[in-house]
UniProtKB/TrEMBL annotation:
Catalytically driven reaction(s): D-glucose 6-phosphate + NADP(+) = 6-phospho-D-glucono-1,5-lactone + NADPH + H(+)
GO biological process: glucose metabolic process; pentose-phosphate shunt, oxidative branch
Official protein name in the record: Glucose-6-phosphate 1-dehydrogenase
SUPFAM superfamilies named among the record's database cross-references: Glyceraldehyde-3-phosphate dehydrogenase-like, C-terminal domain, NAD(P)-binding Rossmann-fold domains
C-alpha cells in the first residue's frame, strides 16, 4: 500500500541554526523527503539562517551534502536540483540587529511562516523578541522549539513565559520527535480505533506496563551537555513521559490538539511521587574497548546517571495498582525502544499445570523496525497432548504499509509538515512540559540532596543489578533487551 500524500499550503520555513547538526541530520533531509513524496508546493521556501557568512550557493552545497548523507535511498540528482531551488540562506545573529530586514524581504505576505529555533535554548527569547520587533511574525506565523525545554520546572517556566510574551500558545510548537514516530501514532489508532483493546486497557486486565528505551552508544561527543542533564532529564521527563501519557490517557473526545493534550496532562498530574526504593540510577563502567561514563565526560567524580529505572503509578480509577516500569540508559545490550503491555493471566487454565501458562503481551516497538506484536497463546503443534506456547502476531509497519521501507516518514518530516498545516496535536503544550518537570524535579532534588552515587553497570548489560531487582521484588521480570 502506498501512503497517501496530502500537499500542504505554500509556506516559508526559516531554520535558525540552519547550519547546525540538527538541521543537517534531520530537518533538511526530512524536508527533502517530503519534497520527493510530492507534499511540498512548488513555491515553498526554506531559508537557513545563522551567523556564519554564506551565500545561497554555499548553503545549497551544504544542504546537498546533508541530503546525500542523511536523505535516505531516493536521492536522485534531478530531485536534489529541484529541491535546492527552494533553499536559501541569510546571515542573522539572534542576539544582534543585523540581517533581520533582509530576512523580512524574503518573506512574501499571505503565506504560512514557520520559524524553527534549531539553536541553543538560551537564544529562544532573543529570537522571539526580534521576530516581533522587526515585524517578521504575522498572523500566520508559528515557531518551533527543540528540546531541551528547560532544565527543571523553574527554567521551563521561565522559557514558557518569555515565549508567551511574543507568541500565543497556539503559535508555539514544542517538538518531541517521539510523538512523530509512526508507531506512537499507531498506538493511538490501535487503542481508540479498535474495539479489541480498549475494554481490556485498565488495571483489571493489565498486570503491568514496561517502557524501555535502550541505547548502545555512550554519551560520545555530547559529554559536556549530557553530564549536566542525565538520563532522567534527557529521556524520562520528555520522551518517556510522552509515551507513558499515550498509553495511560483516557480516550479524548476528538483527535484534536487540546482534547488530546488535556488528557495527557491529566495523566502526568495523576502520577504519584516515586519513593527512593522504586528508583535506580546507574552509570556505565569502562571495558577494554570503550571508556567509562566518567572518562567520556572527563569528570572522574561525576554523579550523573547514564541509566535510570523506576516504578511509576498513575493514581486514577483506570490504573490503580498497575505499575508502569520505566528504564532507559546508554551503553546497554542493544538499541531498542519499546512499550510492552503485559496482560494478566487467564483466570483459570482448563488445560492443567503441565500445559504451561502464557500471558498476552502487546509490544509496541519504536525501534528498530517500528511495529507491533501481540503474543497470543496457541497450542504447540504436533502430537503429544495439549501444550501451550506463545506465538506473536507481527505487524511491522514498513512491511504492512508499503513495499518500500523508505516511504515510512521519519518523525521530523511528519512533525514539520504538521507545523505547516497548523496541527498541534503531536506537540507538547506548555503546561504539559511544566507538569512533567514538576514530577521529575523532586526525584532529582532528592538524590542530589542525598549525594547519591549511581550504581556501576557493565557495558552491554541490561543496567545495574538493582534495576533487575526492582521487578524481581514484585515477582516480575524485564523483557530482554534485544535489537
Ligand atoms: P549546533 O550543531 O551547535 O548548531 C547550532 C546552530 O545555531 C548553528 O547553525 C549556529 O551557526 C547557529 N547559531 C549559534 N548561535 C547563533 C546566533 N547567536 N544566532 C543565529 N544562529 C546561531 O546545534 P544542534 O545540534 O544543531 O542543536 C540545535 C538545537 O537543537 C539545540 O537546542 C539542541 O539542544 C537541539 N537538539 C539537537 C539535536 C541533535 O540531534 N543535534 C537533537 C535534539 C535537540 P553559527 O555559529 O554560524 O551562528
Amino acid at each position: 500500500m502506498v501512503s497517501r500524500v496530502i500537499p500542504v499550503d505554500p509556506f516559508d520555513l526559516v531554520i535558525f541554526g540552519g547550519t547546525g547538526d540538527l538541521a543537517r541530520r534531520k530537518i533538511l533531509p526530512g524536508l527533502f523527503r517530503r519534497f520527493v513524496a510530492g507534499q511540498m508546493p512548488d513555491d515553498a521556501q526554506i531559508i537557513g539562517a545563522a551567523r556564519g557568512d554564506m551565500d545561497d550557493s554555499e548553503y545549497r552545497a551544504m544542504t546537498e551534502d546533508a541530503i546525500r548523507e542523511f536523505g535516505g535511498r531516493k536521492v536522485s540528482d534531478d530531485a536534489v536540483a529541484r529541491f535546492l531551488e527552494r533553499v536559501h540562506f541569510t546571515t542573522v545573529d539572534a542576539m544582534g540587529d543585523e540581517g533581520w530586514a533582509k530576512l523580512a524581504e524574503k518573506l512574501p505576505p499571505g503565506r504560512v511562516r514557520a520559524f524553527y529555533f534549531s539553536v541553543a535554548p538560551s537564544l529562544f527569547g532573543a529570537l522571539a523578541e526580534r521576530l516581533r520587533h522587526f515585524g517578521l511574525a504575522d498572523a500566520a506565523s508559528r515557531i518551533v522549539v527543540e528540546k531541551p525545554f528547560g532544565h527543571d520546572l523553574h527554567s521551563a517556566r521561565a522559557l514558557n513565559r518569555v515565549l508567551e510574551e511574543y507568541f500565543a500558545e497556539d503559535e508555539i510548537y514544542r517538538i518531541d520527535h517521539y510523538l512523530g514516530k509512526e508507531t506512537v501514532q499507531n498506538l493511538m489508532a490501535v487503542r481508540f480505533g479498535n474495539m479489541l483493546f480498549e475494554p481490556l486497557w485498565n488495571a483489571q486486565y493489565v498486570d503491568h506496563i514496561q517502557i524501555t528505551v535502550a541505547e548502545t552508544v555512550g554519551v560520545g561527543g555530547r559529554g559536556s551537555y549530557y553530564d549536566k542533564s542525565g538520563a532522567m532529564r534527557d529521556m524520562v521527563q520528555n520522551h518517556i513521559m510522552q509515551l507513558l501519557c499515550l498509553i495511560a490517557m483516557e480516550p479524548p473526545a476528538r483527535f484534536e490538539p487540546d482534547a488530546v493534550r488535556d488528557e495527557k496532562l491529566k495523566v502526568i498530574r495523576a502520577l504519584d511521587p516515586v519513593p527512593a526504593h522504586h528508583l535506580v540510577r546507574g552509570q556505565y563502567s569502562g571495558n577494554g574497548t570503550h571508556p567509562s561514563y566518567c572518562d567520556d565526560v572527563e569528570d572522574p567524580r561525576s554523579r550523573t546517571e547514564s541509566f535510570v529505572a523506576l516504578r511509576a503509578h498513575v493514581s486514577n480509577w483506570r490504573w490503580a495498582g498497575t505499575p508502569f516500569y520505566i528504564r532507559t540508559g546508554k551503553r546497554l545490550r542493544a538499541r531498542t525502544s519499546e512499550i510492552a503491555v503485559v496482560f494478566k493471566d487467564a483466570p483459570h487454565s482448563i488445560f492443567g499445570a503441565d500445559a504451561g501458562r502464557h500471558r498476552n503481551v502487546l509490544v509496541i516497538r519504536l525501534q528498530p523496525n517500528e511495529g507491533m506484536t501481540l503474543d497470543v497463546t496457541i497450542k504447540e503443534p504436533g502430537p503429544g497432548g495439549m501444550r501451550l506456547m506463545d506465538a506473536p502476531l507481527d505487524l511491522t509497519f514498513a512491511d504492512a504499509m508499503s513495499p518500500d521501507a523508505d516511504e515510512v516518514p521519519d518523525a521530523y518530516e511528519r512533525l514539520i509538515m504538521d507545523v505547516i498545516r497548523g496541527n498541534q496535536t503531536l506537540f507538547m503544550r506548555g503546561d504539559e512540559v511544566e507538569a512533567a518537570w514538576a514530577w521529575t524535579d523532586p526525584l532529582i532534588d532528592e538524590w542530589e540532596a542525598r549525594g547519591d552515587v549511581p550504581q556501576p553497570y557493565d557495558i552491554g548489560a541490561a543496567g545495574p543489578e538493582d534495576a533487575l531487582m526492582l521487578m524481581h521484588r514484585d515477582g516480575r521480570k524485564w523483557r530482554e533487551i534485544r535489537g
